[in-house]
């Protein structure tokens, strides 16, 4: 279920510019919750005007910006491609560079892609479209109808918001379809059913049905809960309802399963009752049938009639455990859901986790990690079981699955590590072969560095692994400028990755980079995530503090030279570190954060995350949250370092009020801080590559001032 929800909530009508939620009587800064309120924006612009010169006037800033621009705009990056069309006719790619800041949607052939300089044909120029329409378009992807993949729903966001619009596009004529499917801006989930029907969940206006109360058809989390079928040539308002959830759900989304030839095998709806829990429904013949999946499970794909899914909870009556990969015979499930029996496909060990799954025409492909190091497995149906092979790929690295062909058994897989640039491989699951097709040129000098993996012991005795990237022969004298990064939530794993900006702007200058694999993530499967949920949240933060203290105890660094950085849920982590253990750090970069955890469910998409953090409206749960919520725990007279807070006005997921209110309360308490709010940019705080480069340059100017000077 996690895979569906992260995808669903990454796309999506927010009430941007709408009135703020009801104010809290003891909070003087709730006016900042009106995203584009005049007072709030005037405050943000004033803070930008105060803070930016502090960083941009640093003599290193321009060099950082130049290097970052060179990296993000480099034309020798590996272009990620997707198989499209019958017979793997073409490979498609979305590309940004200095000449195409908003990006190009383009295509080439496999033969051309294998060459050093592929020949690309533009399908859609987003820069030109934005100029013609005088809009701040940000590309959010395309949904193309199998098996031809010529009719697509192109998704665009205004300034990077989660709220999107889509239009039907013809890749043959390379133009939008006249009188085709076109939906206005909103948080919406959609999928092709056939060439003349789109399944779509969005806000349909006032809901007058039982339980609707005449309110918009959005959940309290601001996502749609009514799914309709929309026929070609009819207005959106005439779409007919096929499924509905409730206003208390997180979201409803259509889910169309197709076989390898593109034929519809099953039409389903997923009803997310919380961020991590969902019900699956089969929609057939005008009826809906609830399928017997546990609430914490995720459908992953269909291979030769076998419906493959993962479990994020134990299912004792079926002898299945959290972390398992299992299957149903789809025909049996459709014939009699209650009697159909699931079967185990693979059970990871306690130190393993399945980090990625894809399907080809005849195979199932897994990215399996052990102790945060990956490998790729190819599995083929055999009798009532599966045969499993391991692909011959570089070891001790991250393995990420790319596009897979539904016409053959070929798929792309990329391999990278902290010091080794990404390589892209073309694998054939039928032959168990791999061929290296692209290599990213080195973007920084890694010859002077090495990587080690250590473990820290957390408050409950659990061993927490972490990676340290450092200069060879590093002196253990506590004087090394060290940047520690972590996330710790939503079952998102921090696996080894090659970052050109970290390498160029930090490692090459003698800095140490650390990634902590704290609980809340998925590095060791669902159990690692579940260990930090709700009332156990403090363990996530204790893990982070344990790694921080271990770095200091090993004399890799010291509080004077230790800085930390994290975004979104990781921004919340930074806020907790600031308020619980400020003595450990001299620099904290708080990116697009959650911060006010008492009101988080009332702003942005916060209500959707109750499954992760708990509900502050419930007294018992509010009691845990109040203990760590950074906003409520800021105090006068504490040894807080001067933090750097950054957010985006267009972030309609976490909501910029968290960052704004954090800064305002710090100011009211008399602390120094730096603040930057990008007026565009969405949850990434950058709407294009140039804005991304500026954000990175600002961050490393700050870190250099605090940790290297």
From TrEMBL:
Q: Which Pfam families match?
A: Peptidase_S9 (PF00326), Peptidase_S9_N (PF02897)
Give this protein's Gene Ontology molecular function annotations.
Answer: serine-type endopeptidase activity
- Every copy of the Peptidase S9 prolyl oligopeptidase catalytic domain together lies at 505-707
* Annotated EC: 3.4.21.26
Specify the signal sequence span. Answer: 1-18
Q: Where is the Peptidase S9A N-terminal domain?
A: 25-438
Keywords in UniProt for this one? Answer: Hydrolase, Protease, Serine protease, Signal
Instruction: Name the top EC class.
Output: hydrolase
Q: So which domain of life are we looking at?
A: Bacteria
Q: What is this protein called?
A: Prolyl oligopeptidase
Q: From what organism does this protein derive?
A: Caulobacter ginsengisoli
């Amino acid at each position: 279920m996690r895979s569906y929800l992260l995808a669903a909530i990454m796309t999506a009508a927010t009430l941007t510019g709408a009135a703020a939620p009801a104010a809290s009587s003891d909070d003087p800064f709730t006016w900042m919750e009106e995203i584009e309120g005049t007072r709030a924006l005037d405050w943000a612009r004033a803070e930008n005007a105060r803070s930016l010169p502090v960083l941009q006037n640093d003599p290193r800033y321009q060099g950082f910006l130049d290097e970052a621009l060179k990296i993000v705009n480099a034309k020798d990056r590996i272009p990620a491609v997707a198989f499209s069309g019958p017979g793997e006719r073409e490979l498609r790619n979305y590309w940004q560079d200095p000449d195409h800041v908003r990006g190009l949607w383009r295509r080439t052939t496999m033969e051309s892609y294998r060459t050093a300089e592929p020949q690309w044909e533009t399908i859609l120029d987003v820069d030109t479209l934005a100029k013609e329409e005088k809009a701040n378009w940000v590309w959010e992807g395309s949904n193309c109808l199998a098996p031809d993949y010529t009719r697509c729903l192109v998704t665009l966001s205004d300034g990077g918001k989660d709220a999107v619009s889509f239009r039907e596009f013809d890749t043959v004529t390379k133009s939008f379809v006249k009188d085709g499917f076109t939906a206005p801006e909103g948080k919406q989930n959609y999928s092709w059913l056939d060439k003349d029907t789109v399944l779509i969940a969005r806000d349909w206006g006032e809901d007058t049905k039982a339980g609707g109360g005449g309110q918009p058809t959005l959940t309290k989390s601001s996502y749609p809960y009514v799914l309709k079928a929309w026929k070609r040539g009819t207005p959106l308002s005439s779409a007919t309802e096929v499924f509905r959830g409730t206003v208390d759900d997180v979201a409803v989304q259509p889910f169309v399963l197709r076989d390898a030839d593109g034929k519809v095998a099953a039409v389903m709806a997923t009803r997310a009752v919380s961020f991590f829990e969902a019900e699956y429904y089969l929609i057939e013949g005008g009826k809906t049938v609830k399928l017997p999946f546990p609430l914490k499970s995720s459908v992953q794909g269909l291979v030769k009639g076998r419906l493959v899914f993962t479990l994020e909870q134990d299912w004792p009556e079926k002898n299945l455990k959290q972390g398992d990969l299992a299957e149903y015979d789809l025909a049996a499930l459709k014939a009699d859901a209650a009697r159909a029996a699931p079967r185990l496909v693979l059970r990871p060990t306690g130190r393993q986790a399945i980090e990625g799954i894809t399907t080809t025409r005849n195979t199932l492909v897994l990215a399996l990690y052990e102790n945060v190091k990956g490998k790729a497995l190819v599995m083929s149906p055999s009798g009532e079981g599966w045969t499993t092979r391991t692909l011959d790929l570089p070891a001790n690295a991250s393995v990420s699955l790319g596009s897979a062909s539904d016409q053959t058994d070929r798929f792309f897989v990329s391999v990278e590590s902290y010091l080794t640039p990404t390589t892209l491989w073309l694998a054939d699951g039928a032959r168990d072969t791999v061929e290296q097709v692209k290599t990213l040129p080195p973007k920084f000098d890694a010859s002077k560095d090495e990587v080690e993996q250590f473990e820290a012991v957390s408050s409950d005795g659990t061993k927490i692994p972490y990676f340290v990237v450092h200069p060879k022969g590093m002196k253990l004298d506590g004087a090394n400028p060290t940047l520690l990064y972590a996330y710790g939530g939503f079952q998102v794993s921090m696996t080894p990755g090659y970052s050109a900006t970290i390498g160029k702007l930090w490692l090459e200058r003698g800095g140490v980079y650390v990634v902590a694999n704290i609980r809340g993530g998925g590095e060791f499967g669902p159990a690692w995530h579940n260990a930090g949920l709700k009332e156990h949240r403090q363990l996530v933060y204790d893990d982070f503090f344990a790694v921080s203290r271990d770095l200091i105890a090993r004399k890799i660094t010291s509080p004077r030279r230790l800085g930390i950085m994290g975004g979104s849920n990781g921004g919340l982590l930074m806020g907790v570190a600031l308020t619980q253990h400020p003595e450990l750090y001299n620099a904290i970069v708080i990116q697009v954060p959650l911060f006010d955890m008492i009101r988080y469910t009332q702003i942005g998409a916060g209500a959707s995350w109750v499954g992760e953090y708990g509900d502050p409206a419930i007294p018992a749960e509010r009691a845990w949250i109040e203990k760590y919520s950074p906003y409520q725990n800021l105090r006068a007279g504490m040894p807080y370092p001067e933090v750097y807070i950054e957010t985006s006005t267009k972030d309609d997921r976490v909501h910029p009020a968290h960052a704004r209110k954090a800064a305002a309360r710090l100011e009211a308490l008399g602390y120094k801080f730096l603040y930057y709010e990008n007026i565009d940019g969405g949850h990434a705080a950058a709407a294009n590559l140039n804005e991304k480069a500026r954000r990175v340059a600002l961050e490393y100017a700050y870190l250099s001032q605090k940790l290297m000077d």
